[in-house]
Design a protein that fits this description.
The radius of gyration is 19 Å and the shape is extended. α1 (about 5-15) packs across α2 (about 15-40), α2 (about 15-40) packs antiparallel against α4 and α3 crosses α4. The protein has helices spanning about 5-15, 15-40, 40-50, 50-75, 100-115. The longest helix has 27 residues, at about 50-75. The relative contact order is 0.13. It is mainly alpha-helical and about 120 residues long.
């Protein structure tokens, strides 16, 4: 069984925990925004001490933060959808692009269909 199916099974069986993960994603997002606004001067002073090393640390912290927010949202929203739905499908037309913006158009239609499912 894939990780996606395990997450779907777990989040459907324990909806309260899935709700908690959704709330954690929102809390983490707003906590990040608050921390940046509250401590931006201290952060800039720390960053100026060693720009090369501290830039790498800041980028890694940002990537980790985004990964956690998206991961929490994925676990929280995994309880929705059909039971026979594929886990990690890609949008149509990704590999065979006929027009210059064909991939963008296919992605846009894919996102519209995804949002229709989760309403």
């Amino acid at each position: 069984m894939t990780v996606c199916k395990d997450i779907k099974t777990f989040s459907r069986a324990h909806e309260h925990i899935a709700d908690l993960f959704s709330v954690l994603a929102v809390v983490l997002l707003f906590a990040t925004v608050w921390a940046v606004l509250e401590y931006h001067q201290i952060l800039l002073e720390w960053w100026r001490q060693s720009m090369a090393l501290n830039s790498v640390i800041l980028v890694m912290a940002l990537v980790l933060d985004v990964f956690l927010v998206l991961g929490f949202l994925a676990v929280g929203s995994a309880r929705f959808g059909d039971s026979n739905e594929r886990c990690f499908g890609t949008f149509r037309g990704r590999r065979n692009v006929e027009r210059p913006f064909g991939a963008f158009r296919a992605w846009l239609h894919h996102m519209e269909n995804v949002s229709k499912k989760h309403r």
